[in-house]
Amino acid sequence: MTQPQHKLIGPFKQVVTMAGLPLKGALSDETLPIIEGETGILVSGQHIAQIGKYSDLRKEAGALKAEIHHLDGDYVCLPGFIDAHTHICFHGSRARDYASRNAGKAYLEIAKAGGGIWESVTKTRKASQQILEAGIIQRAGRHLKEGVTTIEIKSGYGLSVTDELKMLRAIKAADKSHPVDFVATCLAAHVKPRDFDGEQEVYLEHICEKLLPLVKKENLANRIDIFIEDSAFSVDAARTYLAKTIEMDFEITIHADQFNPGGSALAVELGAVSADHLEASTEKEITMLAKSDVIPVALPGASIGIGCAFTPGRKLLDAGASLAIASDWNPGSAPMGDLMVQAAILGASEKLSNAEVLAGITCRAAATLQLTDRGKLESGALGDLLAFPCDHYNEIFWHQGKLRPEKVWKNGMVV
Q1: Whole-model pTM?
Q2: Which CATH architecture is the domain 82-368 placed in?
């Protein structure tokens, strides 16, 4: 069935547009751009055409023969949420890891004993591309119901040329069959695989020579990530690797400062788009990030899953840095995968304003993925809209993530 070219959605009690907010620095709730009172959104094709008084747009909708999505009751409209860091392409459970951590074993201790990332690698390698694709679609479907309309998805549980390609092909195939937009990132540098004969530098060189040209050729990803940590890759090895990927015209992001500082400094040095995690960042790293264009990404799901400190979001914002918030949904350290709940918990723990939390999962998250057509509600932006059944946006996070959107539109289509 052909979708109508024009749609009028509303009326909304409030439309929180998120348009025009600065990328960096603290935000007070008073700075939120809000359109109050009986507001409508006119969508043309996949994009927003106008936002204005509902009664006026109703007349225009009639002339355009637009489909009317009329809302009875009080609703607040937000842009579709953007989850800028996930690992939802995987197979198998790591429930045993979770139980071991709660019983007192450390994350790195579990990894050395055969659990951790390598357990997911073993299970994901055994899964077919079709099984991985089905898993992505199932998890993305849950995310969509909860208001997430764009999802970044990493590889990194293949750790061989064949299996990394399988993961990235699964992400690309799922993207074609699901309404959510997926942004793929190649994380072949997650950890050095145990079955690779050679040091970490040799493995990274192997990835550059054998995998990344095929990733480019098949247009599977234009983003590269690496995990810099004692259990993964050193700063020096990562520097050489990332410099080569930049020469190959990839954008770069870094798993940085999760357990030890060091990765964020390299992110600043190389001009990475983002530095993600940052739970171990000190005042030195915070100041460095604030003076750069690197976007810090907080991953509260990992802090909850591991039981460690949260990313110092308040200090980062007060220092003048940006702050995006993502779920880190993965089978090991962040199995919850609930972006709204995690963002609400981070906000309460770090004393973030609702404006800062909302920006972290909309406009600032969009900047993390270098997407300029979403994360805000304005003419020309994608018609990614959420309708929350309440009369004021403060109600949304007062429920700590449990007030869900009643309706979700992706590219102007109700889903």
Answers
A1: 0.97
A2: Alpha-Beta Barrel (3.20)
